[in-house]
Write a structure and sequence with these properties.
- The protein is of the alpha/beta class and 250 residues long.
- It is 43% helix and 15% strand.
- It has helices at 16-30, 47-54, 80-86, 96-101, 106-118, 131-135, 139-150, 180-198, 200-205, 216-223, 240-247, and strands spanning 5-9, 37-41, 60-63, 90-93, 122-127, 163-166, 207-211, 230-233.
- Bound molecules: 2-phosphoglycolic acid.
Length: 250
């Protein structure tokens, strides 16, 4: 039984006071939900305020990125230990915006994943193809490369503590969504890849979220697919009502 996980990726939105307000509205609406794991990923600067706001509820906290070292001369970076110190249980690794704008490659992401897991964070490892790659029918090749190059040396000893987010890049922030069939096909493919690496039992335990323009009106259909175990939500997570509707999609 995989517990669905629905995470709000606030990206570079919400200063501290706004973050506090949004988190508190979300806690009012879904702070006692247990059949879905709800995670909020505010910007680093608002993590502490959100951690205080969600205390005592079932909502958990995640970072949007982290470094692969514990400390050192890495100006502007944030160690994974700083995230756990802040109360984070999760961290997004390899979001397509990190890959695209900050040139994070599979090898770098592999180091980040290892380090994050070593300090006890649950990674939300993002993968997905661009529109051009989909048009050229390279989706499976891209997913295979991202998984096989991103995961060497990673053993999911407890596969319930590893999350993958399949996010077709062309669906992120565009209002375009993969059809439930397209998403299910990609999720199944990724689960089969994981089975090749970690065995069938582990692969059946890992949660694979869908991300890319998830909204209240498409959440149920997407998450109704057998291999879709929740959602990574950008735009619609910036407003408590729409995020709560996605959490309570059933
Ligand atoms: P979106 O973003 O829901 O705004 O498309 C999803 C994401 O980037 O994780």
């Amino acid at each position: 039984m995989r517990i669905p996980i629905i995470a709000g990726n606030w990206k570079m939105h919400k200063a501290i006071s706004e973050a506090r307000t949004l988190a508190s509205e979300i806690v009012q609406k879904v702070g006692d939900v247990r059949e879905v794991q709800v995670v909020l990923c505010p910007p680093f600067t608002a993590l502490y305020a959100v951690a205080e706001t969600i205390k005592g509820s079932s909502v958990e906290l995640g970072g949007q990125n982290c470094h692969y070292e514990s400390k050192g001369a890495y100006t502007g970076e944030v160690a994974p230990e700083f995230l756990t110190d802040m109360g984070c249980r999760y961290v997004i690794i390899g979001h397509s915006e990190r890959r695209q704008y900050f040139k994070e490659d599979d090898q770098l992401l592999n180091r980040k994943l290892k380090k994050a897991m070593a300090v006890g964070l649950i990674p939300i490892f993002c993968i997905g193809e661009t529109l051009e790659e989909r048009k050229k029918e390279q989706t499976f090749d891209v997913l295979r490369k991202q998984v096989t190059n991103g995961l060497p040396g990673i053993q999911a000893d407890d596969p319930s503590l590893f999350v993958v987010a399949y996010e077709p890049v062309w669906a992120i922030g565009t209002g375009l969504t993969a059809t439930p069939d397209q998403a299910q096909e990609a999720h199944r493919y990724v689960r089969d890849l994981l089975a090749g690496l970690w065995g069938t039992d582990a692969a059946e335990t890992v949660r694979i979220q869908y991300g890319g323009s998830v909204k209240p009106d498409n959440a149920a259909e997407l998450m109704g697919q057998p291999d879709i175990d929740g959602a990574l939500v950008g735009g619609a997570s910036l407003e408590a009502d729409s995020f709560a509707k996605i959490v309570k999609h059933k």
